[in-house]
Amino acid sequence: MKPLTHVAGPACPLGLAGVDTDQLIPARFMKRPRSEGYGGFLLHDLRRDDAGVEKPDFPLNRPVWRGAEIMVARRNFGSGSSREAAVYALADHGVRVVLAPTFGDIFASNAVKNGLLPAVLDEADIEDLLAALTATPDLPVSVDLAEQTVAWGNRAVTFAIDPVWREQLLNGWDDIDVTRSCAGEIARFRAADDDRRPWARPAGA
């Protein structure tokens, strides 16, 4: 997994609350193999009309935000079912950071496992950022995971993230890598346990 330390550039002001995983990727597209890429299906039914034509006024369809690595949303982003494909759609589209006041728990966990940062900002800060992006669409936004800050214009605010998740993203670690990072402690425990309970070690081990 690619480490995530700092992401800067345009930020797409999605501005919707309660975006669930079925909206992030409708279930009918999940029959396709991941190897084909899910990015084109991101928010499909919100981005397109009934004929499949892109709605020009939808934020992700506007040229300034089409390739944005940062997305800004309102409360309860990623709620609903536990489908990991919702994160695949974001990641395959190129999104590396989602800023929101709250996230669905399973979505946030899946996001971290796929190298995507679910950064929790105060609701007032989200509203200020959305307003700034509406006024200045190409306003640069900078997200620093090490410092846990988001900056735009003359504003800099902090965001929250689980410290274990922060460590995973900064290092590009999956859950197995987290365990491996404790290899020294594990070895010391095993050695001490062998002294305490030599009878517990399998014969020939």
Automatic annotation (TrEMBL):
Enzyme type, top EC level: lyase
Keyword Transferase: no
GO-annotated cellular components: 3-isopropylmalate dehydratase complex
Keyword hit for Lyase: yes
GO molecular function, one term: 3-isopropylmalate dehydratase activity
Keyword terms of this UniProt record: Amino-acid biosynthesis, Branched-chain amino acid biosynthesis, Leucine biosynthesis, Lyase
Example GO BP: L-leucine biosynthetic process
One Pfam family of this chain: Aconitase_C
InterPro entries registered for this protein in UniProt: 3-IsopropMal_deHydase_ssu, Aconitase/3IPM_dehydase_swvl, AconitaseA/IPMdHydase_ssu_swvl, IPMI_Swivel, LeuD
Biological pathway: Amino-acid biosynthesis; L-leucine biosynthesis; L-leucine from 3-methyl-2-oxobutanoate: step 2/4
PANTHER family reported in the protein's UniProt record: 3-ISOPROPYLMALATE DEHYDRATASE SMALL SUBUNIT (PTHR43345:SF5), 3-ISOPROPYLMALATE DEHYDRATASE SMALL SUBUNIT 2-RELATED-RELATED (PTHR43345)
Annotated function: Catalyzes the isomerization between 2-isopropylmalate and 3-isopropylmalate, via the formation of 2-isopropylmaleate.
Family: Belongs to the LeuD family. LeuD type 1 subfamily.
Protein name: 3-isopropylmalate dehydratase
